[in-house]
Design a protein that fits this description.
The complex is a heterodimer of chains A (114) and B (117).
Chain A: E1 9-13, E2 18-23, E3 31-38, E4 45-50, E5 55-56, E6 61-64, E7 70-75, E8 84-92, E9 108-113
Parallel strand pairs in A: 1-9
Antiparallel strand pairs in A: 2-7, 3-4, 3-8, 5-6, 6-7, 8-9
Chain B: E1 4-7, E2 10-13, E3 19-25, E4 31-37, E5 43-50, E6 56-57, E7 68-72, E8 75-80, E9 89-96, E10 106-108, E11 112-116
Parallel strand pairs in B: 2-11
Antiparallel strand pairs in B: 1-3, 3-8, 4-5, 4-9, 5-6, 7-8, 9-10, 9-11
Classes of the chains: A mainly beta (114), B mainly beta (117).
């Protein structure tokens, strides 16, 4: 079951940073925070994940609070192509030969405005 | 990464009939996952398909309604049986990442858009 809370929708001006919050107050010590996005009419796409340290890749940055009860996904320079639904998911670390399912919550619909 | 092909991409079906959706992956994977996405909603996991064993269904989903086959490590099918308009959804196939993406990413197909009339 989804263990995260996200705002239903957000707007962001093109070229500005998009900051998408996620609350996961019941996260366990062995659970990671994952972010996926789903552009209209496509399957979800992996963005980034982290345990407790901040993470950055070519797509985004992930900031996790010290108590790990919330996190923020940052798209540093949003473009129109970043308009999508963004899902924050918590999941335990990978375990070989067992289910490694992702359970999606409702997500945040981000609209990047020209 | 993994490339996933789903067939058909979309279909319109009569109520009471069944549709089988195919999912082909370009590499061998241990587990495949089937999701449903109802109109305007998030993704809901239907079942996990492990090659060589029975699929494991999530609460609210049963084998009689959504039988799954997993004949080999690159292929799976999901059948939506005795369809009703409430089954109108996008059905997505997903696999775990392999190699560098093992345990991190999951990859998704483009989905099958099903409309039941």
């Amino acid at each position: 079951d989804a263990k995260t809370t996200q705002p239903t929708s957000m707007d962001c001006a093109e070229g500005r940073a998009a900051n998408l919050p996620c609350n996961h107050s019941t996260i366990s010590g062995n659970e990671y925070v994952y972010w996926y996005r789903q552009i209209h009419s496509q399957g979800p796409q992996y963005i980034i994940h982290g345990l407790k340290n901040n993470e950055t890749n070519e797509m985004a940055s992930l900031i996790i609070t010290e108590d790990r009860k919330s996190s923020t996904l940052i798209l540093p320079h949003a473009t129109l192509r970043d308009t999508a639904v963004y899902y924050c998911i918590v999941r335990v670390a990978y375990r070989r030969h067992t289910g490694n399912q992702f359970y999606f919550g409702t997500g945040t619909s981000l609209t990047v405005i020209p | 990464s993994a490339v996933i092909s789903q067939k058909p991409s979309r279909d319109i079906c009569q109520r009471g009939t069944s549709l089988t959706i195919q999912c082909q992956v370009d590499s061998q994977v241990t587990m495949m996952f089937w999701y449903r996405q109802q109109p305007g909603q998030s993704l809901t996991l239907i079942a996990t398909a492990n090659q060589g064993s029975e699929a494991t269904y999530e609460s609210g989903f049963v084998i009689d309604k959504f039988p799954i086959s997993r004949p080999n490590l690159t292929f799976s099918t999901l059948t939506v049986s005795n369809m009703s308009p409430e089954d109108s959804s996008i059905y997505l196939c997903s696999v775990e990442g392999q190699g560098d993406t093992l345990g991190t990413e999951a990859f998704f197909g483009q989905g099958t858009r099903l409309t039941v009339v």
